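Before a colleague's protein record goes any further, I have to sign it off. Thanks in advance; the entry in question is below:
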Amino acid sequence: MSFKPLFARSLGAAPGRLHMAAHSHHLWPDASFAGQVECWEDAARLADRKWERVMGELWPAAQAEVAAELGTRRPDGIVFAGNTHDFLVRLWAAAPRRAGGPLRVLTTQGEFHSARRQFARWAESGDILLETVPVEPVATLPARMAEKAASADLVMVSQLMFGTGAWVEGLASLAACAAPEGPWVVVDGYHSFMAVETPFAGLEDRCFFLGGGYKYAMSGEGLGLMHCPPGFGPRPPVTGWYAEFEDLTLPPGQVGYAPDAMRFMGATFDPSALYRFLHVRRALAAEGLTTARISGHVRQLQQLLLDRLEDTPLGEAELLNPLDPGPHARFLAFRHAQAAEWQQALMARDVVTDVRGDVLRVGLGLYHDEEDVDLFADAVGALA
């Protein structure tokens, strides 16, 4: 079955393109356009009063959608920002420094660029003491990090590694180390949110979760999201006035905070991503497209693609994330010395993939069907 009609605008805008990078810039469904238009129309119609609708209707609706996706049943534990880097800064400022010096950060060597770069710069400036651990073997990663967690203030680990597509099982053992007084455990779920069914269930009492709308939520930029466990960081030092939005009647000079996840809020923001997100969620629900169903669609295409690639140059590459039972990335990661050359050669044919070092990533999504798999396999077969 093809779901291309849900993406008519994005696909029609570049009809000659074969976009095999749904894990990178996921194409936007038509519903997101309707959300963008509604945001503009609300601003024109309501002016100053638009914030009553944004914070009174859209914000809690989006919180409920995210909590349901994560499997936490705690909408009030969800807060939004323009991107996850904003939350990284707020977490760095708020996390307890139990040793009295710079924040002690424990993370992996496979984190996404925003965290990797920021941690490296803070380590360079002396604002943190950084320890990184190898991702492999991934089966023992949570246990290895748990052994070191006692000497850290902030622990950050991706749930699904962006470079290799490896799924990190057993985060409960690491979550057991977390406490309000430290260490704090942060799960980066950018590649698991709306790609894996209820990825955060059972971890919500002790861990933070970071995700966003740019990828499998199909909502574009501007929707960074964070789940905040209760009792962790009641008064974040990096704070905007929306963190006391519920009570603007405090006497001058007092710095108030919301008791829920709103305590990590910033200031005035662009609400258009909330509109897009909610429109997309409604459109998916109307089609009966749950995360599990979409994942099933993608997995069938991934298996078909692997079968079609066997006799092509890409068939000689090492597949870093085989289609084993259990959660799987929405992309296939192929390691080969010619990965960068292949990516460029495909791009010259208007076939979009991406590359991380010597790993070519091929991402499939709801807007792909069997015809796309055949076209991609033909393009790869033509590689020198």
Q: What stands out?
A: Residues 235 and 257 are 7 Å apart (CA to CA). DSSP finds eleven helices and 13 strands in the chain. The chain has a mean pLDDT of 96. Residues 4-28+290-381 form a domain with the Aspartate Aminotransferase, domain 1 fold (CATH 3.90.1150.10).
